[in-house]
Design a protein that fits this description.
The complex is a heterodimer of chains A (516) and B (305). Chain A has 516 residues and is α/β, with parallel strands linked by helices. Chain A folds into 3 domains: 235 residues, Rossmann fold (3-Layer(aba) Sandwich), CATH 3.40.50; 172 residues, Rossmann fold; 74 residues, no CATH class. Chain A is 32% helix and 24% strand. In chain A, a hairpin with a 2-residue loop joins strand 14 and strand 15. In chain A, helix 12 packs across helix 13, helix 12 packs parallel to helix 14 and helix 13 packs across helix 14. Chain B has 305 residues and is mostly helical. Chain B has one domain: ABC transporter involved in vitamin B12 uptake, BtuC (Orthogonal Bundle), CATH 1.10.3470. In chain B, 73% of the residues lie in helices and 2% in strands. Chain B contains 12 helices and 2 strands. Chain B is globular. The chains are: A alpha/beta (516), B mainly alpha (305). Chains A and B meet through helix 2 and helix 3 of A and helix 7, helix 8 and helix 12 of B. The complex binds adenosine-5'-triphosphate and magnesium ion. Adenosine-5'-triphosphate binds next to strand 2, helix 1 and helix 14 of chain A.
Chain lengths: 516, 305
């Protein structure tokens, strides 16, 4: 096991694990995983939300000490939970959730994670900027270096995570759902880059949800289900799509379910959400809104398309009441709400699936039931002031069961859920009774195949029950499939409006500003 | 006026030193409420060992050793043993205050104050009037305090160790995934912090004075902690806050001498505290925006102490 790694010794697997087991309390997240990843290839890892993909990647990267089993990276056995050993064996990870300290500037964050041996322990700021200027060229140019991580939009943070892993000149790359936050074009660019790395002999393990992406980039595929390796690694050419989705879902796939949401259908009210000439201030990475007119009526899904960073975020936060309107007015159900606080808007039937579920959608440290019940606690002013915890917990667990959130107890903190399950938790809270108009930002991001279908049919169900939905997405297929009308944002304004059937070319042109 | 400035420097030096200790701990994610206990242990050890050996240097070295040992114990209690950081810190303070008073009685059979001949060197002396008063009669520790602040700034804001420290304090997962062991980094931060507390205590007992008195720190450790918060856990900010609290103290002392005939003594004694409250309020206003942003990420702290 001491053969040096490299393209020449392709027989030594880049990553090898034997009988790997990880459990959290009573949950067995990984069960007896034995896996060899051949060097110099792109390996895809797929599975449902909560199947254990992130846990496996962390265990391989030394971030999660396994309960039993061994991990060898390029022939070197990694002591349990030793990140440094994994790093020095040439492994780098891109996490599903961002892993850089929010108050650090980009340059500081890159310096923190750089694997290279340090020449001096003290640095100057200009020296840092000089060192990292090339690396950040693609994530927004050198002026991004002095920006704090917390001020970056999620997409840029994600690209930065990838940059961070790539600068370490790793020989083995683990990427955990790197495409979840990327636009299709950015995804293609990433895949191109990964192929280039593979051709240089780098081994890549990439966690994906979309089988289309698996087919596009991977050489082999492995499937995790309930913490067990049920397929692979097998050559991608030897597995059909059908076999793959059967392996992911297992012997008892849930039938096409749709949630029975009773929207608070309001017969006399047609116009549920209205923005009249709304402008807002620009943020660091997005233009503000420039005199936007927008209306969402009952019984319709209005799609918002656009390249990320063209004001979608400003739009959502203006509607939610999280950022100020400089001009114009926001109306909910005909009622003036321009400067109303978020809680009043919620009482008026507004529900929100935010862009960044982990920092905006949940309290990571609060227990599941509290996260789930948060909405029921808003606007209790005219009700009996005491609540029944038993009842809240029961309601929370019922709602989560409906959405098939994989959890242990309602008392566990929300941060212990897997990425996709956090999204399900948010959805189970927001898509509940009292909903009149839903603003859904990337609602299927990070969800597995069946959950994605579930969300989509639920959105349709909401519409049919009389609600209005504003769907912000970077997935054109999703928008085309669901939207009754489609608006395209560019530079903070709505530059084009389309009705079904959609012309992909025309929408694409509008998104790039060609109509201007 | 000169007298007030001179007193400001003298009162501020121990505060600034201990505030630096607090900054190191704070940046590593530790709300260090044991500063007071470490400071008084430093003051006592300097006098006890300095007096016994006749050497102030040996006294200070011993104080640093004692405070670092106590810090290591503190780390062990909040880290591997998993005790609550705040409670353990307050415990450390109680042990420091009570332990030094007890040792004073048990070892030296003294109640109250113990006087000593050892004293820190004072580079500039002798001025009795004019601007010279400002810099006269300060111990060597007062003189090197600005240097220590500068070094703290370099270590925290311009060194790779400082980056690791900040990452551990802010988002331990980030530190772990960068291959840093948060536990070890916290230990290092606490050891530095302990050494700085020892210096602050030494300045108090053999710098400005020549004695050790029970409870002589008189809440300075907590004021230093306030300076850390007030200075936005930035070394320079915390040092300026410490200087300001020293100034408030000096005004209190000065007006006690000058105006006690006209104003009740109790009001004069309140001045430093009122100024402190006012300053903290003002600082809160200035920093409200950053604090809000900061609070949004308090969520990221992994409960892995
Ligand atoms: N820190 C933790 N404490 C308790 N349970 C945990 C913890 N981390 C993960 N789990 C559980 O382990 C299981 C696997 O989680 P993991 O994050 O690996 O899923 P995943 O396959 O990455 O899912 P997703 O596609 O949603 O990201 C889940 O049931 C999750 O709830
Ligand atoms: Mg995951």
């Amino acid at each position: 096991m001491t053969v040096p790694s490299g393209p020449a010794s392709a027989e030594v697997p880049a990553v090898r694990c034997r009988s790997l087991g990880v459990s959290f309390g009573t949950v067995q997240a990984l069960h007896d995983i034995s896996l060899d990843l051949a060097a110099g290839r792109i390996h895809a890892l797929v599975g449902q939300n909560g199947a254990g993909k992130t846990t496996l990647a962390k265990a391989l990267g030394g971030l999660q000490a396994p309960d039993n089993g061994t991990v060898c990276i390029a022939g070197n056995q990694i002591p349990p939970g030793d990140v440094r050993a994994a790093k020095s064996a040439g492994l780098a990870m891109v996490h599903q959730h961002f892993s850089l300290p929010p108050s650090f500037t980009v340059a500081e964050a890159l310096e923190l994670t750089a694997a290279r041996p340090e020449s001096h322990s003290v640095y100057r700021r200009t020296e840092l900027y000089r060192r990292w200027q090339n690396e950040v060229a693609e994530v927004g140019g050198t002026n991004v270096l002095a920006t704090r991580i917390r001020d970056l939009p999620v997409e840029t943070r994600q690209s930065l995570e990838i940059v961070r892993a790539l600068v370490s000149e790793a020989r083995i790359l683990l990427l955990d759902e790197p495409t979840a936050l990327l636009t299709p074009a950015a995804t293609d660019t990433l895949f191109e880059r990964l192929r280039g790395l593979r051709d240089d002999g780098v081994t890549i393990l990439i966690v994906l949800h979309k089988l289309r992406e698996v087919a596009a980039v991977a050489d082999t595929v492995s499937v995790l289900r309930d913490g067990k390796l049920v397929l692979g690694p097998s050559e991608i050419s030897g597995v059909s799509q059908g076999q793959l989705s059967d392996a992911i879902v297992g012997p008892a796939p849930d039938a096409d379910r749709a949630i029975a949401v009773e929207a608070a259908a309001n017969a006399e009210q047609q116009l549920l959400l209205e923005l009249v000439r709304v402008s807002s201030r620009e943020s660091a990475f997005e233009p503000g809104l420039a005199s936007i007119d927008l209306a969402v009526e009952a019984r319709e899904i209005v799609g918002i398309a656009g390249v990320e960073g063209n004001g979608q975020r400003s739009l959502v936060s203006v509607i939610a009441g999280l950022s100020a309107v400089t001009e114009g007015s926001v109306l909910l159900g005909g009622e003036e709400m321009t400067s109303a606080p978020p809680a009043r808007r919620r009482l008026r039937g507004l529900r929100l699936v935010p862009f960044d579920r982990n920092s905006e959608g949940i309290s990571r440290s609060a227990p599941l039931w509290l996260n789930q019940s948060a909405l029921r606690l808003i606007g209790r002013r005219r009700q009996f002031p005491l609540i029944s915890l038993r009842q809240y917990k029961r309601q929370a667990s019922e709602a989560m069961d409906l959405w098939q959130v994989r959890y242990n107890t309602v008392a566990q903190p929300a941060e212990s859920l897997s990425g996709g399950n956090v999204q399900r938790l948010v959805l189970s809270r927001e898509l509940a009774s009292g909903l009149e108009v839903l603003v859904a930002a990337q609602p299927t991001r990070g969800l597995d195949f069946s959950a994605t279908n579930f969300v989509r049919s639920s959105l349709r169900g909401l519409r049919d029950a009389g609600a209005g939905v504003l769907l912000v997405s970077s997935d054109l297929d999703e928008l085309f499939e669901l939207s009754d009308r489609l608006l395209v944002m560019y530079g903070g304004s709505i530059v084009a409006r389309f009705n079904a059937p959609y012309d992909r070319q025309a929408v694409g042109d509008a998104m790039t500003g060609a109509l201007r | 006026m000169e007298q007030v400035l001179a007193t400001t420097l003298r009162s501020a030096a121990p505060l600034v030193l201990v505030a630096m200790a607090g900054v190191f701990a704070f940046r590593a994610g530790i709300f260090h409420l044991g500063l007071e206990g470490l400071m008084i242990s430093g003051a006592f050890t300097t006098v006890a060992i300095g007096d016994a050996t006749g050497s102030v240097e040996l006294g200070i070295l011993a104080a640093i050793g004692v405070c670092m040992t106590l810090s290591a114990v503190y780390w062990w209690v909040i880290g591997p043993l998993g005790a609550n950081v705040i409670i353990a810190g307050l415990g450390l303070t109680s042990i420091g205050l009570g332990g030094t008073a007890f040792a004073l009685g048990a070892i030296f059979d003294i109640r109250g104050s113990m006087f000593t001949d050892v004293v820190l060197p004072r580079p500039v002396r002798g001025a009795t009037s004019g601007p010279g008063v400002i810099i006269s009669e300060h111990s060597i520790l007062v003189w090197i305090t600005p240097l220590i602040v500068l070094v703290a700034w370099i270590v925290l804001r311009r060194s790779r160790f400082g980056l690791r420290l900040a990452a551990v304090g802010e988002y331990p997962f980030a530190a772990r995934s960068a291959g840093v062991n948060p536990s070890i980094v916290r230990l290092q931060a606490l050891l530095i912090s302990g050494a700085l507390c020892a210096l602050g205590g030494a300045e108090l007992s053999v710098g400005a004075l020549r004695n050790f008195t029970e409870n002589m720190t008189n809440g300075r450790g907590f004021i230093a902690f306030v300076a850390v918060i007030f200075g936005a856990w930035h070394p320079i900010g915390a040092a300026l806050a410490g200087l300001f609290f020293g100034f408030a103290d000096a005004i209190g002392i000065q007006s006690q001498i000058n105006i006690t005939e006209r104003v009740p003594r109790e009001f004069v004694l309140m001045i430093p505290f009122v100024l402190t409250i006012f300053a903290v309020w003002l600082g809160g206003l200035w920093r409200r925006r950053t604090l809000e942003a900061e609070a949004g990420y308090a969520e990221l702290r992994e409960p892995d102490y």
